[in-house]
Every structure is written in C-alpha cells, then in structure tokens.
Design a protein that fits this description.
Elements lengths: L21 H34 L3 H14 L4 H14 L3 H6 L2 H15 L5 E5 L5 H8 L4 E5 L3 H13 L6 E4 L16 E6 L11 H11 L1 E8 L2 E10 L1 H4 L6 E2 L2 E2 L12 E3 L7 E2 L4 E7 L8 E8 L4 E15 L2 E4 L11 E12 L4 E8 L4 E5 L1
Parallel strand pairs: 1-2, 1-4, 2-3, 4-5
Antiparallel strand pairs: 6-10, 6-11, 6-13, 7-8, 9-15, 12-16, 13-14, 13-15, 16-17
The structure holds S-adenosylmethionine.
The site of S-adenosylmethionine has 20 residues, from helix 6.
C-alpha cells in the first residue's frame, strides 16, 4: 500500500459540497485518516529501529525492519536505497563475478557428474550462494541434496531460486553456518559427498579448513568424497613496483606519508597480475599440499629454498591454488589463467629485497586456519 497518498482529511471534500454519493466517503474519511496516521507512525518506527539495528551491526534484523517499512510504503526511495546498502554489506559483490565464471561452473558441474553419476547418493553443499552447486548435484542424479548458508538473506534467495528451477523437492536449504548443523536434526543422515567452494584467491581465506575438519568429524560418512578432494599452493618471487604501490605509499606531494603503511595489508590480496607490469624472479615452487578427504588440516610451517632465475627486486610473493575436483578436473587461478574471477593472491613486503641471479633464498611458508603467509631470509 502506498502511504501519504492524499487520503487525509485535507483531501476530503467539505461536508457542504458532498453530494448523495459522497455520504459513504464522508463516513469513511475519519477511519481512513486514522489508518494513514497509524501506518505512517509504523513506517517511521520501523525505519528508526532499522537504523538503530544497523548501527549496532545487526544487519539481517535491520533489513527485516526496512523490508516491512517498504511493504507499507513501496514508493519510498530512501527506504529502498537503505535496504540496498544493507544488502551490499550482507552479500559481497564477488558473487556476481563468481557466478559468471563459466570455467569454474563447468569444472564443478563436471566433477559432480563424475562423482554422482546417478548414484542417488546424499550430497551436502556447504555455502549455498544461489544454490548453483546443489542444483547441479540434483541434475547429476543425487538422491537428496542438503545445502546450508550462513547468510540468512542469501539462504532465502537460494530457496527461491531453487524453487524457480523446480528443484525444491530435491534440494533443502538450511539457513545455518555448517558448524551448527546437527545430523538427525538439520540433515537426516551423514552425507556421502561434500561439495564446497568457500575458496578465495589464497584458498583458505573463506575458512575451508575448519569447515571441512568439522564436516569430516560430524557430517560426513567415513568414506565420503569431497569436492575438491585435494589442493596445492604454488608460488613465485614477484618483481612489480606497480603491485607494491597498491599496498604501500612513502611520499605524496613532497610529504612523507610512510606512517600510513601501518594500515597496509599484511597478508595477501587479489591481483590480476597480467594487468600490471611484473616479472617472476624464481621458478614456480610448491608451498603446501592439502588432502581435504583424508589428510591432516592443522596449521603448518615449511621452509623451502628458492633459487632466483634472474637479477631483480623482490617486491613480494605471488601465489595461487590448484584445486583437484576429482576425475581429472583441475581448477586453478595461476597467472596463466587470465579469465578466472579469483585472480592471483599477492603478499608484498614493505621493504623489497634486491637479488642476484642464482641466489638461494630461504622462504618460510606458514598457514593457519584462514590464511597463508610468506617470509624471506
Ligand atoms: C564462494 S560462495 C559459493 C556459493 C556457491 N556454492 C557457488 O559455488 O556458487 C560461498 C558461500 O558460502 C557461504 N558460507 C561460507 N562459509 C559458510 C559456512 N561455514 N556455512 C554455511 N555457509 C557458508 C557464504 O556466505 C557464501 O554465500
């Protein structure tokens, strides 16, 4: 219903002008006026509460208030824009680039087809997003698909998308973080297959290790397959003043601004390397291998010796993953892949290191549950 649409007392014809047909309108007028004032007050209260909740970072609850306000006042552009601002905070924009990454989509679909092959198995898809991987699993012949999504707004959308695609009888969306799922309550039995694509450019940033560790212990059958089953991290020493300048500043307008480097990114960030002048000063080296299905997933530190292949200035480390999705399907965000939405992961050092050709450098590679970090000696 549109509010403030002029059904107030001021818009009613004066009593003396009212013809016979107006009598009913006249009788209804006071009630209509009362309802508008009541709705207006309700909208104002909802908007105020929405802002209060948003200020205390309760974004989902804030969104609910604005949605209710908007249902009462559909033409209110301020409410629509506020909701959109909240949605942008709740749903990262990379979802769109990810969904349009056809190489990624095809790779997961192929891997699901090979793993499921009409076997009627039970699939758990952690991190629904739009429900894409769940719908692919259903199309590949899974018996039942359960998918959980930690962001309630995204889970609601996934449910609607799955229903639009007439797969709601095969796929159940559970609006929960995977580590809160309980077999027997949220899903009827342990799953035969886990598919998970909570992977950022540096592999671990979206929490795949703790998610898989928990799933292996609590949600999967002992012999369950995981897509991806394995992953490798590979790296090269990177020379790129252009990339370094994306994370450090020393002088601007003749002023020393280097104190600002306190807020530079200490871990890695995504870079499309082919868009920046750069050189690789070492061959490709393996940092870590992960076996998601059976291997240990605890934090590790490894030291490797890297021999430089040319003279130059090491600004940082470029690294990427190779995801083994099973059945020979491999997906990588290596620098040779110019299209994928992940780009490469780069960690830059505040003080670059000058090197000669054939120099041996000791690189320490560390990972914890959600990050990978390199240091040079
Ligand atoms: C990279 S997206 C992938 C979406 C979808 N699986 C696809 O491939 O198109 C990861 C999604 O997982 C959700 N997510 C991350 N960790 C989760 C967890 N532990 N439990 C449930 N959802 C999670 C995020 O909110 C996000 O929507």
């Amino acid at each position: 219903m549109k509010l403030y649409d002029g059904i107030g007392a001021a818009d009613q014809p004066p009593a003396s002008d009212a013809g016979p047909q107006s009598t009913r309108e006249q009788r209804r007028a006071p009630r209509a006026k009362l309802r508008v004032v009541a709705d207006r007050a309700r909208v104002r209260a909802l908007v105020e509460e929405g802002h209060r909740l948003a200020a205390s970072f309760q974004l989902e609850r804030a969104l609910e208030r604005f949605e209710e306000a908007s249902s009462l006042d559909a033409d209110n552009e301020a409410i629509v824009l506020t909701m959109n601002g909240l949605l942008r905070k709740l749903v990262p924009r990379w979802h769109f680039a990810m969904l349009n990454d056809h190489e990624r989509n095809r790779a997961f679909e192929r891997a699901l087809e090979i793993a499921i092959g009409g076997s009627q198995c039970t699939v758990l898809d952690v991190g629904s997003g739009t429900g894409l991987l769940s719908m692919m699993a259903a199309r590949a012949g899974a018996g039942a698909v359960f998918t959980c999504e930690s962001v309630a707004t995204i889970a609601r959308l996934a449910r609607r998308i799955i229903a639009e695609n007439r797969l709601d009888h095969h796929v159940s969306v559970i609006p929960k973080v995977s580590t809160d799922l309980v077999v027997g309550r949220d899903i009827p039995r342990r799953a035969d297959l886990l598919v998970i694509e909570t992977v950022d450019c540096g592999l671990l940033g979206e929490g795949i290790l703790p998610i898989v560790r928990h799933a292996r212990e609590k949600l999967l059958r002992r012999e369950a397959q995981i897509i991806p089953g394995r992953a490798k991290i590979r790296f090269q020493l990177l020379e790129s003043d252009a990339v370094h300048r994306n994370n450090f500043a020393f002088e601007a307008g003749g002023f020393d601004v280097s104190l600002f480097n306190q807020v530079s990114t200490k871990t890695y960030f995504p870079v499309r390397l082919c868009a920046h002048p750069h050189a690789f000063l070492s061959p490709v080296v393996e940092a870590f291998e992960f076996d998601f299905e059976r291997g240990p997933l605890e934090p590790r530190t490894r030291t490797v010796t890297v021999t430089t292949k040319q003279r130059g200035r090491v600004h940082g480390i470029a690294f990427w993953f190779e995801l083994d999705l099973g059945g020979g399907v491999v997906l990588t965000n290596a620098p040779t892949n110019h299209q994928n939405h992940w780009m490469q992961a780069v960690q830059v050092f505040e003080t670059p290191i000058d090197v000669e050709r054939d120099e041996d450098l000791t690189v320490t590679c560390r990972h914890d549950d959600t990050s990978i970090r390199f240091s040079l000696a």
